[in-house]
Design goal:
The protein is of the alpha/beta class. The protein is built from 7 helices and 9 strands; from the N terminus they run βαβαββαβαβαβαβαβ. It starts with a strand and ends with a strand.
Amino acid sequence: MIREINAKGLACPKPVILTKKELDQMTSGSVKIIVDNETARENISKLANSMSLEFSVEDLGEDEYAITILKSVEQKEDKPVKPAVHKSDAGTILIIQSDQMGKGDQELGRLLMKSFIYTVNETMPLPAAILFYNSGVKLTVKDSPVLEDLLELNKSGVEIISCGTCLDFYNLKDSLAVGDISNMYTIYEKMQSGTNTITIG
């Protein structure tokens, strides 16, 4: 039986993450992923290659593609399935210093940040903590485009910490919707505690 994923209309990295989750849950069998852009087709093909899985790509016309990936029992034994439960890495600390990712177009930067937070929430292991300062605190308040993912991360044990001075500067302290308000001393302590600190912004 071939399992099918309809990933048409989904922005990167959702098609890849849906595919990875399905493959991780399978002992053996095939999964067909339908996408409607070349980027998703290429990314899913790269995923299959990275997992040493056989796959084929069918051009369905009008920018639609079907990628069929085969997973055998032998391949599963070579590459153990990761547990589906959320598991955090105590040594990884994420620092988010802006509500945008990268420099350039602001709309694109916000879209990239939303995609990044989604990816963090869907990828194991989770970080131990995410620290927000400067305009990054705009992501932890009501009506934030990433609030749902941050709430889920927090529920899974990831510390969400926002700079109190920054919330005050943007008049957002009363709008905080996830995690704790802290000071620069605590933020620095958290940075020191991490063996792998990643700064985004």
